Each structure stands twice: as structure tokens, then as C-alpha cells.
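Batch manifest, entry 17 of 40.
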Amino acid sequence: MHFKWNFETPTPEQKRTAEELAEKIGISPILTQLLVSRGITTESAAKRFFRPQLADLINPFLMKDMDVAVDRLNDAMGRKERILVYGDYDVDGCTAVALVYKFLQQFYSNIDYYIPDRYEEGYGVSHKGIDYAKETGVKLIIILDCGIKAIEEVRYAKSLGIDFIICDHHVPDEVMPPAVAILNPKRPDDSYPFKHLCGCGVGFKFMQAFAKNNGIPFSRLIPLLDFCAVSIAADIVPVVDENRILAFHGLKQLNQNPSLGLKAIIDICGLNGRELSMSDIVFKIGPRINASGRMENGKESVDLLVEKDFSMALKEAKHINEYNEQRKDIDKQMTEEANIIVSKLESQRHLSSIVLYDENWKKGVIGIVASRLTEIYFRPTVVLTRDGEYATGSARSIMGFDVYAAIKSCRDLLVNFGGHTYAAGLTLKWEDIPHFRKRFQQYVDEHIKPSQKEAMINVDAVIDFKDISKRLYNDLKRFSPFGPGNNKPIFCTLSVYDYGTSKVVGREQEHIKLELVDSKSSTVVNGIAFGQSASARYIKSKRSFDIVYTIEDNVFKRNQVQLQIEDIRPNSDSVE
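Output type: C-alpha cells
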């Protein structure tokens, strides 16, 4: 992968604002420049950014239908009706179900939860799930992270005397299901001020409103915020505004007093004794919660997340970890197969998108394969597999391109579809795939910008090695939690040299462990460049080169930082 480096030089006014802010809040102008670029220009705004307050969460009753949803839940409890908490089988759905179930279970016992089987029932509300609700005497279903398009299913449930409260964050259609209440900030008729909650976030707002209405102290919700942090990180929603508050305090909970199920996963991942970040959730915790839904049934993940006995939780976490190992093997095999297909399809090399299908691929991992292909080829990607007479698939996108809109443009060919800007799911007849591929690619060709097809690294600041210190790193940590809308800052240093001790490492000699100096000081800085061993020969030639990187804690040397190098290129006089 060759990246284009993009750096926007701050204007004189931005520089001046950054310098003034640095004096007021006592951190480096390098970092206040990052604040200014995020639209934070005053001392009070900086304090709110660095210390997000739970008191600043939005009033949940500003969300349309929230009062109706709370009234219906109160009625169900008052009439001792059986309640079913139903959710999607991914991380967002499982954490949402765990959060709502755990909270309500403290006050009400006639409650159950349900996760559909990906292979038997597919995505969203299923007739089998509704039949289970009917058989077990359920009168109210609270559905989380799906349901916004389940018109026929909700109508079927209604005919059986079962009401629905939908808590979703996916883009709704013009016509919505006949539910008692639909909580979704993306509703066109909803004036809720923050539109980017994940499914678990919508579930949290529902519980916040329920607590407020019933005089339950907000402090009873705080132990559940670790679920919010996990879902925000795993579902890749913007870590800004209300999501930033939920993620900040959720990470605090995850580090200080996680729920027993998450504690068991942390143990299994070998993450004990270190400060957990959003990256740990994305790469370690999230995939394990996802794995049971991908390989077997996501209900096992919820069983773990609501478990009250730690020894049992550890046993369940080990079981889910085994699923994750199986998932990784299948994922690797499918990605290799997909790469071979792409490399053979000369006609696809010049297209703006990738649409692949194979009837032998496992339904549970096609989303991961789509993500991998998007990363490798930097094009919107759809990966499909066979499910009876239908094809079911996952789509992933690149920065700035709305893959949901691209799929929606083909809706006349689709049996079902749903999602958001960067990730979507779809179902169509197997024989319609060639028509879909043609239409999808035509839409991408017409709407994608040339710059979106380039692998781009946005550089936040050009600095020298002398600027890098433990204090800078500690101040940089205050910018977390990181994610879309608040990405981890990327720095650039020009004209650096190998100190003479850099070497290739890794089981397959694929990484470079670096010791570097720059042209302006004799400070030796440690770094690691994953998967970039192709640059080793140039580095050892004693010629200068430029690097872009993030600044990380050195886990092997206390009180030291190291660079995680994202890209290396021969020295040039300027950054584009």
C-alpha cells in the first residue's frame, strides 16, 4: 500500500489561536493546534473536551417517541407482562441487549432476551423469534440495533397481540413498522440533536429516560457504561459529542470495574494490568463478542455479558475465544480466495468497486472479508454468499463514500437491505447478482471522487524528534477516546536516519524495529513499523527518509514512548 500524505497548513489565525490557547491551558502549541483543527478554540471548550461530563448528556425525552416508549414499558411492568429484549447478533446488538436486560432485571423479573441465529433466521426480526415470544407469553418486545425495516414482522407480531418498541440507529425507509414506539435519531421527523448514536447508545438513552421517569438515580446506570464504550468502538460510530461522553466514561468503567463478562474477556485476551483503549476493544474485545454470532449463535455472547458468576464467565469466555480462533482461520482462507479472484479479474482492476460472490463462503465472516478487501484495494466492496435461492452479503466502504446510498440505488433488485454510510447488509436473488454488480458499479463510478480512491494519510502536524517527550505523550492521551471524528493524531518528521541498529523482526520477518535520529537533534527514538519490511533495505542504506506515525507508550520500557510508524518514504523537501 502506497499512501498519499495530506497536510493542511494552519492559517496564521489558527496558529495565533493555538498559541493563545496553549498559554491558557498549559499544554504544547503542537497539541493546541490539534484542538483548533477540531473546532475547539476556547479554554472552556477545551476543558469540556478533555473532561467530558455525564451531566452534559442530552435529555433523552428530546428523542421522538421516548415518552411513548417509557409509558409502554411502565404499563408492561405494572401489568406484569412478559418482556423480551431482542437484538442483533453483532457486538452492538449483543451489548445493547445486555445493557437493557441487566438494567431492567434489577427492577423486574418477568423478562427474557433473544438473539436470532444468523444462519437459521438471518438479520433482524424473524418470524421464529416472534413465535418464540408468543410461545413464552411475551406481550412486549424491545428490539435493539435492528427492526427499523421490519414492517411485515412487526405487523405479524401485532396480530398475535405482541407490541414492539424499536431502538435502532440504521437509516429508516419512508414507511416505518407499526410499532408502539420507534426510537431512532436518524428518523427524518426526529429533532434529537445528536444523530450518531449506536444501537447500544439508543438502548442506553431509553434506560436513562426510564430511570428519570421512575425516580431511579442516574448512578445506577453508570456500571453499564462499559457496554456503551465497547459498542461505540466496535460499531465505528463518530467519537464526538454524546458518543465521546459515553465512550470516555465507559472506558473508565471498563478499566476500573468492568462487568464480570467483559472482565473475563479481558483476562482471556491477556489485557490484564494495562490501561485499555478503544483500539483494544476494536482488535481484541469486540471480535470475541462477535465470534459467537459469526460461528454459532450470538446468544452465547449475551449469556457471557450478563453472567453473575466469574468462574462461569471465564468458562464462557474461553468457549467464545475458541470461536474467535476458528473465525480467524476461515477469515484468512476466505480473504486469500477473494484476493485471488480479484487478482484474476483484470476487468475489475480498473473499476471503482469490487463485487465478489462465492456460494461456499461462510455467511458469518463475509463482513470481515469485505473490510479486508476495502483496506487492501481501497474501493467500496460487496461480498456475497449463497443462502438457499438468495444471496446474502455485506458491504464496506472507504472514507467519504456512502455505500448505503449505492446499495439503495439498486433497491428494485433487492429483497432486503439496511445499514449506514460505511457498512451495510443486503439480500437478493442469486440470479440477480450480475445485474446488481453492474448497477452498483455504475453508481460508484458516477459518485466517487478520484481522491477517495487513493489511500490517504492525513497528517496533523510536522514535528521534530526534540518535540517528543513523555509530557507530550501524557497530554496527547487526554485527546482520547479516539475514533472516527477524533482520530488518533498522526505526526510527520522529515529527514530521519537509521541510528545503525534498526532490524527486521517478526515470525515472517515482516516488521521493522527502528532506532532513529533526525537532522535536528541527537535524540534516539524507538519505533515499530508493522508489515513494512520492504523498506528495510533503503533504511539501512544510511540515506534520509520521511516518516508518518502515532506516538505510543513503550510497553517494554517504562516511562518511554515509541513511534508506531504508519508509512515510510524516501526524503522529500515537503509534505503534499
